[in-house]
Amino acid sequence: MSLIDSNVATSRVVLRGNTLDRLATQALDYRDDATQRGLAYYAYSNVTIASGAKYWIRFVAPIDKYVVLLSRDVITDNTKLTFRAYTAYTGGTVGAVVPINTLRSDTPFPPTSTVNVITGAPTPTLSSEITNFPIYGSTGAGGRAAGNKDSVDTFRLFAPGSSFLIEMENGSSQAINVYVAYSWFELSNQVIL
Known about the structure:
Blueprint lengths: L3 E3 L5 E4 L6 E2 L6 H7 L3 E10 L4 E7 L4 E12 L4 E6 L2 E2 L2 E5 L2 E3 L11 E6 L3 E2 L4 E7 L9 E6 L5 E3 L4 E8 L5 E13 H4 L1
Antiparallel strand pairs: 1-2, 2-3, 4-10, 4-17, 5-11, 5-16, 6-14, 6-15, 6-17, 7-13, 7-16, 8-12, 9-11
């Protein structure tokens, strides 16, 4: 016996035993709802950074959409990594594309943000720093150090066409492997304002 009966309206279902129609997605929060609508994306990068070296990635918001940063995860196999982000910088060269993936596999809305590696030596504008996140703790389970920040405690909204530079600096005496991942929404002005 099924717990769900189809209703006359195909977008609704009736849970057996209840007297009221319920949306099949009634338990979704805002993040889940945006994901099921096909508006959520993620990008990740795996890099090895030499001792004392830095690595940069640039994120650019779509010209016609706001970007709501959902989460950032940083996992390393060593300590003494400093993860920074800036909204302004000079120099450097736009390099390889970091692929963007969707959190809904059949989304009708392809991502319009861009994520690229920056080569050379960009010079961040220090007064534009928005994140300074050192991973200095001892390595944990699996021999890795990890850190993250998400919108449970920080809600970050990037205006259309804005960008930020991610800088990862290895302060240890040996090479460090780093996995960094971002997830975000791309939302129109009508939704934000």
